[in-house]
Amino acid sequence: MVNKRILISGNEAIAQGALDAGCRFYAGYPITPQNELIAYMAKYMPVALPVKPVSPKGVFIQAESEISAISMVYGASAAGVRAMTSSSSPGISLKQEGISYIAGAELPAVIVNIMRGGPGLGNIAPSQSDYFQATRGGGHGDYRLIVFAPDSVQEAYDLTRLSFELADKYRCPAMILGDGILGQMMEPISVSPQKRVLPLKPWALTGCRGRKPNVVKSFYLREGDLEKFNLKLQKKYAVIESKEQRWEGMFLNDAKVVLVAYGTLARVAKSAIIQLRAQGKKVGLIRPISLWPFPKKAFNVFNSGKKKCLVIEMSYGQMVEDVRLSVEARAKVDFLGRSGGGVLTEEEIVKGLSRLLR
After folding, report:
1. 8 CB contacts (<8 Å, ≥6 apart)?
2. Which of 81, 196, 254, 258 is the 20 to 30 Å CA partner of 227?
3. Is residue 329 classed exposed, middle or buried when 0-12, 13-18 and 19+ CB atoms within 10 A define those classes?
4. DSSP 115
5. d(C-alpha 232, C-alpha 224), whole Å
6. Is the preceding peptide bond at 50 cis, omega within 30 degrees of 0?
């Protein structure tokens, strides 16, 4: 089977990426604006071909709730199957206890959040207000998720596949953080053949005939055991931080003002930057692709102390905190944001950049 081009939505591309990564268990609950993803899984997961060494038929479950869905993902992952769930902002909030359990049991899993406006039930318009929840763990305890923020349908497909690879590699949950625009837009993408052989998981609960039993848990009652386990997690997270930072840079060498944006809003930012560069204005872009680990290395461009920084978000200031920590007082960091379904326009971004250039 060779690569092929298909026209597909962002939600569907994430689902296809999961199938091509060897995901064979999906449990979810409908919520706008990610329903195309669950519908795609309902159609194609039951006919997905088996993969080795764990080779069940594809299993799709529309659970009775978000809490049930994340608990089912815990069980499937513990059995060694590549497993995924998806939802949108308030639904992801309901999954937080289960995500903490998955992290505490060192289980690989992929969680998709196609963000919508909040707080509360909010609306079904796009937002980026779940950044804190995604990058700070979201649930209880000292844990982290690998978090990727695609800005195109192709990248949604590619980063979903990568999420499964890294979740298995580091035995931790990974998250795709998108929004309503990315989920709904359609673009042509290249898809590649499905995986036929997955990594061995000697820790999985596959029956202990001929070997010692495996234990999957996140419960440590003996004094000192939980602290030792948390220290082990922190060492793992330090390795992830050093090796898995990802970002895109544009026009950074000569830029006087560097714009920082992620996801869908980075697409609008690129248009604004191209418009200003055509006018001879020296502006550039840092687009974080991994939100955790946050790409601190990208901000070494501020070492000269001559650049200014503008952070834009579909929130009232969340990623901007990580930018300020990464810049470390080498530049003043300005912020421009809208929330509750408001999306910054190209004109608003151009105006903000022009103000800093003056």
Report:
1. 16, 153, 157, 186, 187, 188, 189
2. 81
3. exposed
4. E
5. 13
6. no
Crossing angle between the packed helical segments 66-78 and 96-104, to the nearest 10 degrees: 10
Q: Which two tokens stand for residue 184?
A: 């709904």
Q: Which amino acid is at 157?
A: Y
Of the candidates 260, 87, 114, the one whose C-alpha atom is nearest the C-alpha of residue 182 is: 114
List the domains of the chain with CATH numbers.
Answer: 4-243 (3.40.50.970), 249-357 (3.40.50.920)
Residues facing residue 62 across a β-bridge = 28
Q: How far is CA 332 from CA 20, 257, 277, 286, 288, in A?
A: 43, 10, 22, 16, 19
pLDDT of amino acid 57: 87
Is the Cα torsion angle 247, 251, 256, 259 positive or negative in sign?
negative
Contact between 17 and 176 (Cβ < 8 Å): no
pLDDT, block means (10 residues), the chain with 358 residues: 86 97 96 97 94 83 97 97 97 98 98 97 96 96 97 98 98 98 97 84 90 93 97 98 98 96 97 97 98 97 90 98 95 96 96 94
Positive or negative: CA dihedral 57, 36, 189, 69: negative
Distance of CA 268 to the CA centre of its chain: 20
pLDDT at 55: 66
| Crossing angle for the helix pair 225-243 and 153-170, to the nearest 10 degrees | 140
